[in-house]
Amino acid sequence: MNLLETLKLAVSQIWAHKLRSFLTLLGMIIGVAAFMTVLSVLQGFNLYVDEKIAGIGSNSFTVRRFNFFEDFKDTDTIAAAQRRNKELTFEEMEYIRTRAQLIDKIGAKANPNSADIKRGAITMEGISVSGVQPIIADIEKLDIADGRFFTESENEGAVRVCYIGKDVADKLFPFGSPINQEIDIRGIPYKVIGVQTYKGTVFGQPQDNFVLLPLKTFAANFGPLTNNRSLYFVITAKSENLFKDAVEEVRTLMRVRHKLAAGEKDNFGIITPDAITGLRDNILGPTYIVILLVPGIALIVGAIVIMNIMLVAVTERTKEIGIRKSLGARQGDILRQFLFEAAVLALMGGVIGLIIAWLGGKIISMFLFQTYIPIWAIFVGIFVPALIGVISGLFPAWKAARLDPIEALRAD
Questions:
Q1: Are 155 and 217 in contact (CB under 8 A)?
Q2: What are 343-356's pLDDT values in tens digits?
Q3: What is the DSSP letter of 239?
Q4: Helix, strand, or coil here: 57?
Q5: R_g of the chain computed on alpha carbons
Q6: Cα distance between residue 141 and residue 284, in whole Å
Q7: pTM: predicted TM-score of the whole model, two decimal places
Q8: Cα dihedral angle (238, 243, 244, 247), rounded to 10 degrees?
Q9: Among 168, 167, 157, which Cα is nearest to 134's?
């Protein structure tokens, strides 16, 4: 019996017991669907983080008052950092700008405040309002949908202009362009000069409910740039090859400016893309393994179910096996038939589970972030279930092949 005939016979046996075959498939379908859905979410999250880092430039880093990864480990390190670390100043930024040889651009931002925004009878509550220097548009590669960003003269003159997110524009200006129109923030009018391209949501949190003001405008109307409005610097290296050297150069300049002795701990923080991805991997790496192991258990359960059903099939078809052997079927033919049945069952479950996982990923993408199933995972989702089916069917197939034809023919 050739392989094609064996495959046809295996499919016909599966089709002859539709309900039992479907119930057998459920374990494998659930296992593959759960495993692939979780994998697609994890892969999508990793890609999202990497894309956001790439969006501001993989050769960008920030200088802040605190290093959140080291200074915020527990209450003791927080208290020590608050005593040790001072607010950043414009003088420090100029010190870096005039002395650093490996940086390309440097700009200042203020930590955002929450404020109510109004236009006519429409009010939006709790909108993020922050101040930034004009160069931030180049550093962070802002995607402007309409209008423009601030100019240096507008920042130096503390002009009341603003750059808004897409949700703010759509809510306050539903029937026309917001450009050159005014909105009120804490009772003060600001002219809209630009609108950000739609960014969507992250974990259900909107990314388009914000207002950016020129930094000096923000300071003039919201108060000194300290505490919850404190400054931080965004810096780019001249090239990605010089990135690490640029970070160390800025760290050295800040230590000299702060008059820190050799071996003394930094009283400022430098946050790099590697630090962000490293934190993600350190925290979530073990979690990823555990999360993937849980649906992996369902695959083992599916394998046990297939083995059990194949053992039942061998018992049910003992007489059939005896007849086939008496007509000249060899042990290898019987072995292949039952192995093919187990493999086809598992393979069907894998394909159906993969389709369900793909559909589930599409639904998740609509509400959270884009999920992603890599090509290698598709092959794993198809061939691993088939392999599991072969392994699960090995003992039942061996048992069927070893049956004595005379004893098998006597079976009821």
A1: yes
A2: 777 788 888 888 88
A3: S
A4: coil
A5: 32
A6: 29
A7: 0.65
A8: 70
A9: 157
